[in-house]
């Protein structure tokens, strides 16, 4: 398998990372080297093997549906790039 | 004082031979003198450290101190610590002051009374094996300043090796505690997945990440793990288990212990000097009464390929939170919202991080999910099953930690694949979720060699015992780099 420069740009867009033409080319070379390594997996017959998503075979804990956290909005918003009246500010989305 | 173990420091503090303020000042002064060259710390705050030390001295005076109260340690900059800049080695978080404490921070500092000397340098978002991907520049290995300390916990490793801190925390997703410990002549432990809380530990690959201790000796690691481990309701993958004293079996004799040598770890691909040191360690274990048995991990060669699908897949999801909205870096100039995301992430992340996000986005994308992500998860199962089979005939598994000693700065940074292969012996342990340790076992060409011990699930105490007995019979772990006075 070999990624094209177009594919690299498409993935970069999916991941919301801006790439220039020259970055896409360098990245393409690196990613193809890595995928060559990853391709070793394809030689293995894994029919019937249960995929392992997690190291421990435990189910998610449930907790009572009750308030457990204190209101720390001010502290958490103090580290935001831009806020106003308790809201996070971003460029206008709806015209 | 700088060569004392945590137990010796604890005794000195209890006997009032030294105060925590004096001890902390000693290390802060060393950091001031040596860190400009080594670059092990990215954040130091003398005032905060000395306030913590004074509080620890008060606890000691009041008789309410725990065994480690007043001992200064370094924190990997992946753990959020309230009021401390917490960068994760990234431009994205270069100015981020954490508004809360990670559970590990809370347990070590508030509960156990350890004193923080500051935050240590690391590969950006823990993605790297040399500490060269840090936004704050590479860390130098105190054993040879032309060489890397390993990564991603390279700052923590270099800090201990240069005696800038008696011990430190690290995190290990594919070898990030064990490989730097090996390259810097230290002891480090990656616990069983779920033993140490991940709350407040900035996530890279959530199903693999695990925090753990790094120090000079196995006993130090056991004492630190006592303060770090334990169930935490705030981490959904934290395991509900009774508390353990990880020092309880340190002194147990090794007679009758069965040590398994996976033949795949002793095949071609490992430096001769590294292999020679590991072989000598095996002989030492024979003298200590252990029985050596051959085992096999037939799928271990697939661990690096499977890891570089699973870890980037999880990373691409975890790192989507860095969008310039709620915290961290935001690009100064942008058009619409999408453009703000794209520029923020392009400017805020370094090359290696972007590379792994792209791999992750690709293997999770429509049409490739089964071929890559599911196949990697199936191989992960095969790798975990290999260990289950191996542990039927042995108690611990032994091998090298890294195929080479510390490599030169810049030597592997141009070729990601070469860099990835330096974790060839450590990654399988994370995929399986097992505990693993690195400990000093000799030198090759003047550079430290690290032995790796792998235990069965929840067998940390036994691993520490096996390492501790070896350290009683050898003195590799007591060596200090030349030029570190």
UniProtKB/TrEMBL annotation, chain A:
Keyword line: ATP-binding, Ligase, Nucleotide-binding, Protein biosynthesis
InterPro entries xrefs: Asp/Glu-ADT_sf_sub_c, GatC
Superkingdom assignment: Bacteria
EC number: 6.3.5.-
Catalytic activity: L-aspartyl-tRNA(Asn) + L-glutamine + ATP + H2O = L-asparaginyl-tRNA(Asn) + L-glutamate + ADP + phosphate + 2 H(+); L-glutamyl-tRNA(Gln) + L-glutamine + ATP + H2O = L-glutaminyl-tRNA(Gln) + L-glutamate + ADP + phosphate + H(+)
Subunit structure, interactors included: Heterotrimer of A, B and C subunits.
NCBIfam families in UniProt: gatC
Protein name: Aspartyl/glutamyl-tRNA(Asn/Gln) amidotransferase subunit C
Name of the gene: gatC
